Every structure is written in C-alpha cells, then in structure tokens.
Amino acid sequence: MHAGTSYRVCPLCEATCGLEIRTRGREVIGIRGDDDDVFSRGFICPKAYALKELDADPDRLRAPLVRRNGTLEPATWDEAFAEIERRLGAVIRERGRDAVAVYLGNPSVHSLALSLYGAVFVRALGTKNVFSASTVDQMPKQVAVGLMFGTMLSTPVPDLDRTDYLLMLGANPFVSNGSLMTAPDVPGRLRAIRQRGGRVVVVDPRRTRTATEASEHHFIRPGTDAYFLFAIVHTLFAEGLVRLGRLAEHTVGVERVEALARPFAPEVVARRCGIDAATIRRLARELATTERAAVYGRIGTCTQEFGTLASWLVDVINLLTGHLDELGGAMFTRAATGSPHTRGTPGKGKGVRLGRRRSRVREAPEVYGELPCACLAEEIETPGDGQIRALVTVAGNPVLSTPNGERLDRALDTLEFMVSLDIYVNETTRHADVVLPGLSPLEQSHYDVILRQLAIRNVATYSPATFEPPADQVPEWRTLLRLAAIAAGQGDGADVDALDDFVVAQRVEQDVAAPASPIHGRNPAEILAALAPRRGPERLLDLMLRTGPYGDAFGAKSDGLTLAHLEARPHGIDLGPLEPRIPEVLRTPSGKIELAPEPIVADVERLRAALDDGASANGKMVLIGRRDLRSNNSWMHNLHVLVKGNPRCTAQMNPADAARLGIADGDVTRVTSRVGTIELPAEVTDTVMPGVVSIPHGWGHDLRGVRLKVAAEHAGANSNRLADELALDPLSGNAVLNGLPVAVERATPAG
Q: How many Å apart are CA 224 and CA 660, to the nearest integer?
C-alpha cells in the first residue's frame, strides 16, 4: 500500500499551523508540525492530531439525508436536490425571498470553498435575512475598525515579534491560539517578549493560562473593559502623554475623544471596573513611554454590552500612544489575496454604511449585510409579512452557539422547510428536512483567505487535498452553486460548470473595469484563458493572488505571485514582516483616521449613564465564557482525542462565592438567568474572581435526534441557554455573552 507525506495548513482554528501528514493508502498514520512551514516552524496544538479521527469518524456524513416519514434517511444527491427545489422553491414563490433565511457558521471562514462560494449562494438567494456566527463573536471589532479606518477588515494586529509591551484584555491566546490575530505559536511569541526584557500584562476576570505566564495580571469585573480603557485615555490626555507622531496629519477627532474621556477619570472608574486608579495610571504611563507597545482586546471585549466601545478604545489608545501603524505596535496586514483596503484608490474610499435596513420584529439594524443572530428565533416565530418560513444553515450549529438556544430549538420545529450543509447531524441539523454532507478537511484544498487578512506576518500557503474525495461525494463549492441555481429559479438540474464560469467571468469583468486594478483595461478573454484549465476555488484563488498586492498581474510583473508559485512551495512563501501602511490603507471618505465616528460618540452617553451601576458587585453573580485548547467549535466534541480526560464543562467559581452559596467542588450546580437554567458540576478555583461564574460554550449534546455518539457521552450543558437574546451591543448587534447576571445555587440542597 502506497505510503506518502503531504503538507497542509491546519483548518481548525485561527493559528494556521503547517502540518506534515503521513499516510498509507487512504489512512492517516501520523500528523506532526511542519518544521519548514514559513510561519509556524513546527508548532502544533492538540486539535491538529484530531484531523485523523475526524477524517475517519463513522458519524461524519458521507451521503445526503432526506426526511421521510419524520426520519432523516440516506438519499442520492439528485433526490436531495429535487426535494430542495420542490420545497424551497415553493416557499420563495409563495412567500417571497425574505421568507428564507441563511445562517453561516464559524467553519465557513476556515474553508476555501465555503468562504468563496457561500457569498455566491447568498447573493442568488437575495434575502435580507442573513445571519452568521459573527454576531456572537467579533462584530464589534469589525464595526469599530470600519468606522475608524474604512473597511470591515481594517483590523490592526499586534506586531508580536517586535513589541516590548503588550496589554491584553479578554483574550487567552495560550488556549485560543490567537483570534483576530493569526499567529502560530502565540505562547512562544509571548514568552519571547518577556525573554527580551519586555512585559505582557493581562486584564481578565479569570487568571487564565495566558495570565499565569504574563508579567502581571489584573482581575476586572466582566463587561467593564470600556471603563478601564477610557480611564487610560483620560490619563494620557491629563498627563500630557499623547504622542500622535506622523499620524497627526492623518487623524481627525482627537479633541472630541479628549472631551469624551473627561468623565472617566481613573478614580471614578476604579470602583466600577475593580482596578485601582494607581494601577490604571501606571499602565497608561508604561504604554505611552515604551517605544514598542500595543493593546489587544479579543472576545471578552467583544461579547459584552459595550463591545463596540471597548473595541474602539483599544485602537484609540494604540493611536494616542504613538503605537498604531508602527513597528512593534498595532499594524495592518497586507494579504496576498488582496482585501478591501488594498483595492481601489489608496488612502480614500467610501467608508462603511451600517443600519441600511432593520430586522422585522425588533428593528435591530443591519451590519455589513447581516442581522443579529439573536433575532433569528423571533423572526421565525412572529407571524406577518416577511416571516421566516425556511432556513439554510451552512456549517453552523446555532442551537448551541447563539443566545437562548432553547427558544431557537423550539422555533426550528415550526419551519416549513430547512436544509443544512454540514458534516454531522447535530443539535441544529437534526431539524433539517435535507442535510447535504461536506467533505473531510483532508479531501479538499485549503487557503486561508480570511485569516491571512489578520496575520502578524505577511505569508501565503496553499494546501492541496491530502486524499481524493470519493467519486460519490460532492465538493462544497459545487453543492453551493447547485443551491444558488435553485435559489435563482434555474431548477436543480443546472450546469454547475457553466455557473462557475459565470461567477469567474463576472469577477474578471469587475477587475478589468476597475481603474485601480492591476489588470484594468485588459481583455477579459485573455485573463480567463490564463486561468484555464483550473475550476472552482483554485481558479478564483489564482485570480485573487495574481491581482493581489504581490501578484504577477497576469504577466505584467515577471516575479509576481501566482497559485502555481504556491503549489511549488508546499511550506508556504514568506512575504515579509508587517510594514507601516497609513495613509495608503485608509478607505474613509475623509481620507483620515476617524478617531471619533458619530455612531460611537453617540453611544458613549450610554456608557457614562451606567457608570454607577454596580450590578456585578454586592454578592450578585455574573456569567463569563471560557475557552479550552482542545475545543473550538461544538462539533469537535465528537472526537475522542479532544474530549478525553477530566470533564471540562464545569461552572468555575471563586472559593469565597462557593462558601457563601454552600457549594463544594464537584457539587451539581444550578445556574439560572432570565431566559433559562442549566445544571453542571461546580469547579471551585481561585483563578476566577469573586462574583463571577465561568462556563465554556459549545456543550449540551443531550438532545434527542443528535447523531454524535462520542459527544453524547460527554454531553455537558449548553451555556447559551443562559444567554439573553434581548441583550445586544446596539452598534454591532453582537450578543452579550459576558457579564450577564445569573443566580447560582446548589442543585440539591444540603440535607
């Protein structure tokens, strides 16, 4: 039996680590880090080893399922698409396109096929009811940077390898491997900061693994990061520490920010956030006086009631201290496939438009074409014109990952039709009438189109499929094009290759028509001929690389980048460290950094009004999430290698709270919020600050109809049954998952 070695980038989290995969025939016999990968240099985490188990998982779907007599049963692809055309087509014809909703899950971002062709399907469907995992994750950051710099992907990332001071809030990259900051071996990179004499400061309600290895850690009351950050801004102005440097001529709104910060003096804020005024002032001075420093905030700063304000203030501080767009500070990636801030006229653009429409029931504003996923259940339940009657989910499990999952679980049962593109029958897809399976990650090619936009170094790596997919399985891009044809009214028998040709031809025509494009004015037929004979994701990827900032522009640059170059270099191509990009990176209408965007300025009053709110103190408990190194998404709980060992779905609480509540380590604990109750074991630990209970997300695999054998044996409890779907950050529509008030008690009273 043939033995071989292949190289690919791990698709399971944001770190994008290079892997060396040894195979014998169709079997994986070993996975290790790729020592020659230009970015990860051999680093690997436990999730990568799970690719072998995922590929062989008997629960992973390999054929479509169609509901017959109330049961999901195997069907042919033609039978599945005929059912979709019949029933989805009927909903569109009878009720209109807005009667269909789409939910895009987190794995869509980690898939070349889904990230490129998911948008094609959504456009063909033409519904305003688009939802995604973004509004239970990072949307506040995307709103903040869009308003400040001009595009939703204009996210500054810490220049980890050259910084000497890093202040982190709501982030645990020793466990998450980094997020909105693509960086393999974050633990090694953070340790290197300290080894070269620098400092790493962590602000978090938990003493996480990252905090344990940091120079110092400070507990902060959940949901109060914006107060703490505003107090730093206040200090910078009050003590004359603002240093705009070369960015002064490219920035507007500095005086407005100074005025906004006046009510948030450290002495005023300290009682709200739990960090004393002297510490706040010291950290502000250290940031301002260290030559190379950066502030980084992640999911804990996003999933709270002031998520957009906190996300905005991170980069306000980076700019005011002279560390934005500077070596060792917070810098902008230049991705090989291009991005909204590498296309168009450098230094100026249309900016972003938010709130162009609103949801039907709650009137929540649209953000970047999406509605808050916390609105999905009410849009299904509430009768009237535009009520959602059909749903398409793509690689998502919103019953476990969105607020008040129990309500959404009930709502899905009332739909007229549901179709899911997924590799498992999970807590969400068990409701579907048709389930279309995807491929194993090892059966498809890979390139990180989105995550390389956030990398701490400019790199490019392409991974061909390790195994050829079985002849009777269909690649996701072809599935999405076939769904797009049905949505567009072309029926289930459309020519998928012709549709793919149309998609690529449209993209080429847009590029040759754009004045700032490197192929402006070229003959589209010439460009299409140069892309042949590639099809599917590879053809689109080659186009994006060749028209990107390093591309060959189809022969115009002899040494430029092409997909062929990447295919010849399986360990990737290093395109160099981050470089200063302001003003070129800006795409705001003013051509300036908008330090005080009006929507954000208007929301500051809400923060100020809540300054005296002590809801997280005085013996009351609030909920925060928790991440585990072996758990990224809920489907990973069906892999034994990732769930073995001690149970990880526990309610962590401080010994003082446990004693007050009469709870001992290991007791079954009942946690109740406005919307729900769950029970799970208590874990008493001083790593959690008093007044806080910490529960991980993605568990709750005990629902009827789920076909996840391993996950069911480690069911845990769904923390999002506690999350209140009415609690949103108003600017981004992001769900509030941290800082929610809860009641905690022993499930069985003593005696």
A: 24
Among the CATH numbers 3.40.50.80, 3.40.228.10, 1.10.3720.10, 3.20.20.70, which is that of 139-345?
3.40.228.10
Contact 584, 347 (CB under 8 A): yes
What token pair was written down for 400?
């476990």
Looking at 360-445, which runs of residues are DSSP E strands? Answer: 390-394, 417-421, 434-436
Query: Is 596 within 8 Å of 257 (Cβ atoms)?
Result: yes
Distance CA(434)–CA(436), nearest Å, equals 7
**Residue 46: cis peptide before it, omega within 30 degrees of 0:** no
Q: Provide the CATH topology of domain 619-746.
A: Barwin-like endoglucanases (2.40.40)
**pLDDT at residue 364, rounded to an integer:** 97
Q: Which two tokens stand for residue 606?
A: 């809400």
In this prediction, the residues of the chain whose per-residue pLDDT falls under 50 are 615-617, 751
Residues 308, 368 contacting (CB under 8 angstroms): no
Q: Is the dihedral of CA 314, 315, 319, 325 positive or negative?
A: positive
Residue environment code for 454-493, b if the CB has 16+ CB neighbours within 10 A, otherwise e = bbbbbbbbbbebbbeeeeebbbbbbbbbbbbbbbbeeebe
Q: Three-state SS for 437?
A: coil
593-624, pLDDT tens digit by residue?
Answer: 999 999 999 999 999 999 987 544 456 899 99
Stretch (H or E) spanning 144 = helix 139-149
- Helices 254-261 and 225-238 meet at what angle, rounded to 10? 110
CA 18/CA 40 separation, integer angstroms: 6
Query: Angle at which helices 225-238 and 598-609 pack, to 10 degrees?
Result: 110
> Residue 615: what pLDDT?
42
Give the C-alpha separation, 609 to 629, whole Å: 38
pLDDT of amino acid 112: 97
**Neighbouring residues of 631: CB distance < 8 A, sequence distance ≥ 6:** 637, 642, 648, 696, 698
Looking at residue 171, its amino acid is: A
Which amino acid makes up residue 431? Answer: H
Is 469:37 a contact under the CB 8 Å cutoff? Answer: no
- Tokens for 43? 């680093």
- CATH code: domain 1-56 is 3.30.200.210
Strand bridging mode 65-68 / 740-746: unpaired
Nearest-5° angle of CA 265, CA 269, CA 271?
Answer: 140
How is residue 263 written in tokens?
């009510």
CB–CB of 317/236 below 8 Å?
yes
Distance CA 580, CA 563 (A): 27
Give strand ranges (E) for 551-686: 573-577, 593-594, 621-624, 651-653, 668-672, 677-684
